[in-house]
Every structure is written in structure tokens, then in C-alpha cells.
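Section handout 9: paired folding examples.
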Amino acid sequence: MKQPQPIANIVLGVTGGIAAYKSAMLVRRLRDAGYAVRVVMTAGAQAFITPLTFQALSGHPVHTTLLDPEAEAGMGHIELARWADLVLVAPASADVLARLAAGLADDLLTTLVLATAAPVYVAPAMNQQMWANRITQRNLKTLRDHGVQVIEPASGEQACGDVGAGRMPEPDDLVQVVQAALDPVQPAQHLAGLHVVITAGPTREALDPVRYISNHSSGKMGFALADACRDAGARVTLIAGPVSLATPLGVERINIGSARDLLAQSLAVVEAGCDIFIATAAVADYRPEVVADHKIKKSGEITEIRLVKNPDVVATIAQHAKRPFVVGFAAETQNVEAYARGKLANKQLDMIACNDVSRADIGFASDENAMHVFFSDRYGFEMVTLDKASKTEIARRLVDCIEQARRS
């Protein structure tokens, strides 16, 4: 019986780490989705799982040697580099990430990555402290700067007993990344080549070591926008307050706590260079003037806390010397349009999206939203109404609004 032609050719690089067991299931999932898969294993990977396993699952011999005497002219890495439509390294160990960032070509996998013209994706997997290490983060930045797509790791309990970021995403999630990269039917790449920074979620303003002032923001709108901007071709940095949401695949995440943390991180990414800044975060307007060193004890019927004003993050970015295109958000409970227009002018924004969070059906915790979008007078656009829809769909429509304004 004639076999169907594969959708595309995937080279899967497997490096040393306990997460290599997930790569076996990943091969199966990729083949189930219609892809042809060839596996390249490092020496470290072979200490965790055997090449025979991947040979059985992929239907092809596994590649482990840089100079393969059975390959044409002994140059197997060049043949694989030309064969691949996409290279995915999963798991990608801290060691291999460092060698890729340095441009080394001292084994088959690193040589293949240098030799291919196909897009390269890496799915890091390592101990949470190794992931957080500044050297690892520097290596990741180098890879991103050179066009390598970094798939953010998941958080949770790790094999070593630690808890935190560093787990390899699940095989089904990685297949979705591959499909999004190679599927010819994709959203319009309105933001291709642009760096988009999105703030999301609440801030927390400490009262003492155990209490804080915050709000009900879930971060869902900002995370949906991160997905939409990524799908539109942008490189996305998501600066997130304390929310219980998984990092969108392919998005760089920076976690913050307070409004001043948010401002510092926002200024850092803007000064480094970004094209669009979308401020969906629900930033606390005020913070306690004094943060107690110890838990505040009950004393009397009334306790007074003096509050001081927090910096206005989006207005600060809008007035920055390296000003990007700036989008604000207004979550109001009354006079929604008037307040939104006032913020648009006073903060010198390019665009603002506002919604009525007093509505139970589109409030902070809802999966749906409805918005009015206003533009700076210099763009000459009328208000755009986004009728109630899922936050995913609203995010896509907002990307269209941003694209329309930027190109006007």
C-alpha cells in the first residue's frame, strides 16, 4: 500500500536530561500529525534513553555521529540539514544551549544547527535554578537574537524535587508549535520582525511580609494578546504580575510583583529596543508609604495606612526617548468612554482599549470580553467596537487594530 507523503520533514534533536523520555512520545505525536521525523541524539541523551527506541518510533535509523561513514561522502550532517523543514531540539539542555549560543560545531547536533537553513526551535529542560541562572538567560538571549525560537519551559515539580520553571513542555504542546510554524494556513503575519512587549495581570503592593494591596486581574487578556501577537509573527516579551497562567509557547516571560518592579522591567526592555508596547496590566495606583518589617498585629478598631502614588507605567513609556507604539487599556466601572478618551490624551497614547468590568459577563475573571478601541487624533480613525467574544478572538481583533494604526 502506498504511504501518504509527509506534511513536512522534522529533525528532532534530543539532548541529555530526564525529559528525554518525553521525546519518545513526541516522535509518535509528530508522526501521528503527518510529519516525517529523523532523530539526532547527543552522547548525553543516549545515557537516558536508547537510540533503538527512537528508531522504532520514527521508522528511521537514529543519527549520533558527526562523520557518518554510511552517509553520502560521510557528510550526514549536511544531508540532514538540507532534508529538514524544521529543526526542534527537545529537550535542550543548558550545556547544548551554551554550545549553540557560542556557535560551536563539536558534535552532530550543533553542526547540524549551524548548517541548516530551516527554522530552529529549542525547548529547554533543566533544573529551575539552572534555568534562572543569568548565564543561561544570556545564552537564550543570544540564540533569540540570532533567530532561534525559544519555547519557554513549563513550571512544576521537577525530577530532582525542586519546584519551578524548567520542565519540558508536553509533547502535544510541542506539536502545536511545529504545526503553527509550518502550517501554510496561518494568521496574517502583520507583526513579522517586530518586538512586542505586553504587560499583564495585577501588581501587588506590600503592606508587610504577609499582606499586600492588589486587584482582581486574572491576566487572561494580556496572555491572549501574547498568543495573538506571536501568531502574527512578532517576537513577544510578556511582563506578568502574579497570575496562575501558563506561559504561552514561544513567548519570553518576565515575572514581576509591584508597580515599581513593572516599571523597571518595562523601561529595561524599551531601552533595549521594542516596536510595540501593550499595557494590559492592572497596575495599583497607590502603594503603602511604609512597608512593615514584621506582620502588622491587630490593635484597635481602626488602623490607618498612608498610601503614596505609584508611577504611571504606560505614561512613562509613552514619553520615553525610545518611544514605541503604545497601547493602553482602561478597565472601568462607569463613564467608560469618557475615562478612556481622557487617558488616551493625558497619557499621550497611540491607542486605548477599554471595557466595562462592572459587567459580570466580561469582568476580570471571565474568558470573554467586549471593548471599545480609541485612537490618537493623529491617526484619523473613528472608535472601533469589538462586540462580545472570547478573549482569544478579541486579542486577534486588537492586533488588526494595531496593524491598521501603525500603517496609517
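Moving on to protein 2 of 2.
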Amino acid sequence: MRTRKAIVLALLLLPFAAGCSPSPGGAARAIEVSEASLHVYAGDSLLYDIRHVLPGRNGEMWVLSALEPFVYRFSTAGRIQARFGRQGKGPGELLNPWSLAPVPGTDGVGVWDVGRHGLTVYDRAGVLTASRQVPLRTGTVRGDIRQISYGEPYKLRAAAGGMVVQVPAGSVSQPADLYSSVLLRLRDDGTPGDTLISFRGMRAAAGLGQAQALVPVPLWTTCPGGEVVVFEAARQTVHRFPARGAARREQLRIPTRALGEDDIRPYLRRMLEQETREQNLAAPEIDRLVGTLLGSTREMFGARTPAAVDLLCDGDGSLWLNQFSTRDHPVGYGREWLVFRGTRLLRRVTFPAGFRAAHVEGNRVSGTFTDGDDVQHPAVATLPAR
């Protein structure tokens, strides 16, 4: 059993989550997605720790789990149609599947495996059809980095002419470490191409100082037309890399505020509960430890809340920026998304509690829903007609 001092030290080394920003003003339309518009898929007892969801053909959904069988295919109605993927080093097996990718010209799916440094392609039934090695230098990343932080090392998405992957230069244990990353294009055969953009030069502008927790980090995504979009959260600058033509920038204005104890406390409490689960500490003791950490580690946290903690792009090329809120989620993923077309704020979309958006296609938003027992399910939210 670890001592209390060791517990506190371990907490200081954990990566920390993102912050909460008030929405910009203006006449943007406010949309509240009702719980009745949320379709939560049943899944099964083996579906655990969802890492990625990806829309398939005709409204189907591919889901990647952290445990085998890793890959699930759901029908439009939310029923499991296939499940496959074994752990191992043999043909078609996976070591550390990280995300899913569409495969042009097929109705199958690709699995990006950071353990094997490759993309493994399956058909709809789970039969191996191709395997491509991706020769990258990879550093050490916490396996639970996406559960306790925002931003995503080794994220891979489809883009014009192939794939784009985020590659950190070294180890990643806290959000500030993501500034060592570059976005790298991958050709269709999996070989690295040119560097699209580096995050390293953005760190100085972020003014992090000694802070490593609750700091703004660069976010990125790809649009259905193949465009790559990077949101430099510290400067609130959007970098667009279209499929054709020159790159361009757009400047957003999203108010932020001073980071306070109310932002830090929920996250620290959640981390303490996880870290001390075997010790079965009583709630008053956890509250006391939270108070101790609040008073002794303030310099490790950012000064202001980040402008956003997640980024999506819809079929119109509009950007969806997720607002931070520890009132909604202990790690900071808020219920509200700001939708921008260019520099104009179009809508504020608020999803039901527990739902986290991952893809937007028309009025259909696929993602995950975490229930009252802290179990994740694939889910689809339907937006009201515009």
C-alpha cells in the first residue's frame, strides 16, 4: 500500500485537463439538444473504454475499444453487426489500437496501431485485407492520456491524399508536452511525407512558464473535403490547410477568464478518487488532500482557461469548438460547442449531460455517452432542423 506522501507525489506528476471559457457574445443561435434526441447504443459487457468512433456507410458506426475484441460495427439502429480484433503480433492482430480511419474505395475500416506502428485494414466482417507499416519515431505516452487530459498524441485522421498523424518528439505525460508535436502527412502506402505544421514554435506564444496543467494546447482535425484545420488555442488562431491552394489563417475571439480553484478542484478530486481507490479513503479525507494540493501546486496550473478543448469540422467546413467546464465533466469537456463559419459565430450547441461529440454529419452527431455508472456507450445525437 502506498503512503499518503507517495499518493500526493503521484498526483503532482499526472497530466491535467483543460479549462472553461465563457461563450462569445453576439446573435448566434442557441441550440439545446434534448435527451429524447439522443440514441444510446446498448453495446455489450466487453465494450470498454471507447477510444474512437467513426461513421461508416449508410449510417453505420465503427467503434474502437481499448480491450479485445477491439473493433465493433454497429447498424444504424444501434445493434452490433460485427466484432473482431485480437491482441498479439500475428497477421491481423493488434497491440495498442489507437484510432480508426476510413479506407477509400472500400466499406471496411483501418485501425491505427501505435504498438505496431502500422495501419491494419479489415473488411466489414473483420477479415484482414491489408497491413501497412508506418516508420515513425515514437516516444512514450501514458496509456490513459485521453482519459485524464485533452489533446491527443499520435492522433491519426484521413485527409486529402492520404492521412495526417500527430507525432510528439518525446514522452508525453502532461498536456504541455504536446507542444513537442508535429503534424505529418502520410502517403497512401503509409510512408511519411512532408511536415504540415509544427507545434513547437507555438509554445513561446502560449506563455506557459512553469505551468503544465490546465494549459491551452493546439487542437486539430480534418474536414470531410480533406482540409486539415489546426486551432492554436493560446492565440485563438485557426490554420487551414485546404486540399488545394495555399494555407490561410483566421482569427477567432473567444473570451477566457482567470483559472480558479473551482476549475481545479473537480479534477483533483476525480484524480484522488482514482489514485486512492484501493485505500478506500473517506470523502472528508479526500477533501482534505484536495485542499492541500490546491494550496501547494498553484504554479503548475495555467493562469487562464483555454479557449477550447476539442475541435471538429462539419460538411460545410464550419468548426466546432468544445468549451471547457469542470461543472460538466471533471476533466473539463463541457456540454457546449461553439460553431464558427470563418470568424463568425453561428451557433451554440449544448448536448445532454454525459454525451461527448466525435463526428458531425449533417444533423447527425456521433460520439460516446457515459452513464451514471461511468460506463461508456456509442451514441448518436440528432440536431434539430436549422
